[in-house]
């Protein structure tokens, strides 16, 4: 076995996807471009995962060298995918955070129609939990706080989405500025 595959990595999550009760994709994000590079390969993988899990009562599956944790609710199936060596508890914490955050946003009505009506909020939640395969947050209350969600508000107004985008751009700008400074100092040494 290749020793580099056992090296610890922050890139825990390979993919996240939500399917309806027919196995059709509602949302998917793949964080490893080498895993399933084409849309066709991704959909085939999702279909295989759905076929293996939609009638099972388990929470964990192993398929195609991947560890998959999943949960269903009414007419939705939520999946978080990691490598074969990945800690199932870490993946499960991401899945639970995703589900609990969406449950709050959708006012405990976690079903297909509500999910589709609030898709911008769903994408914001996923982006707050995972960035490029790195787990950023596993506490649903922190996720909801970061996207400025309040139960008495309309879920995720346009202003909230704009604030979220502005904050992400500012964070990216800060990271780039820091990288520039590090490069400058390494050249000057």
Automatic annotation (TrEMBL):
Q: Where, subcellularly, is it found?
A: Cytoplasm; Golgi apparatus membrane; Cytoplasmic vesicle, COPI-coated vesicle membrane
Which Gene3D superfamilies is this protein grouped with? Answer: 3.30.450.60
Task: Look up keyword Calcium and say if it applies.
Answer: no
- Domain AP complex mu/sigma subunit: where? 12-150
- Pfam families given for it? Clat_adaptor_s
The Gene Ontology biological process annotation of the record reads:
intra-Golgi vesicle-mediated transport; intracellular protein transport; retrograde vesicle-mediated transport, Golgi to endoplasmic reticulum
| The keyword Cytoplasm appears for this protein | yes
The UniProt entry lists the main location of this chain as: cytoplasm
Q: How does it assemble?
A: Oligomeric complex that consists of at least the alpha, beta, beta', gamma, delta, epsilon and zeta subunits.
Q: What is this protein called?
A: Coatomer subunit zeta
Species of the source: Betta splendens
């Amino acid at each position: 076995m290749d020793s580099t595959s056992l090296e610890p990595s922050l890139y825990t999550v390979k993919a996240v996807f939500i399917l309806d009760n027919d196995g059709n994709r509602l949302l998917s994000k793949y964080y490893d471009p080498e895993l399933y590079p084409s849309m066709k390969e991704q959909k085939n993988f999702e279909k295989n995962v759905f076929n293996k899990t939609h009638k099972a009562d388990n929470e964990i599956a192993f398929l195609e060298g991947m560890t998959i944790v999943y949960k269903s609710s009414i007419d939705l199936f939520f999946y978080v995918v990691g490598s074969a060596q990945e800690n199932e508890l870490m993946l499960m914490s991401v899945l639970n955070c995703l589900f609990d955050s969406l449950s709050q946003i959708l006012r405990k009505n976690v079903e297909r129609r509500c999910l589709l009506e609030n898709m911008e909020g769903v994408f914001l939640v996923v982006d707050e939990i995972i960035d490029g395969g790195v787990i950023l947050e596993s506490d649903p209350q922190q996720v909801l706080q970061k996207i400025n969600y309040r139960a008495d508000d309309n879920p995720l107004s346009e202003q909230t989405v704009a604030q979220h985008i502005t904050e992400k751009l500012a964070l990216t700008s800060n990271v780039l500025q820091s990288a520039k400074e590090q490069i400058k100092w390494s050249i000057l040494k």
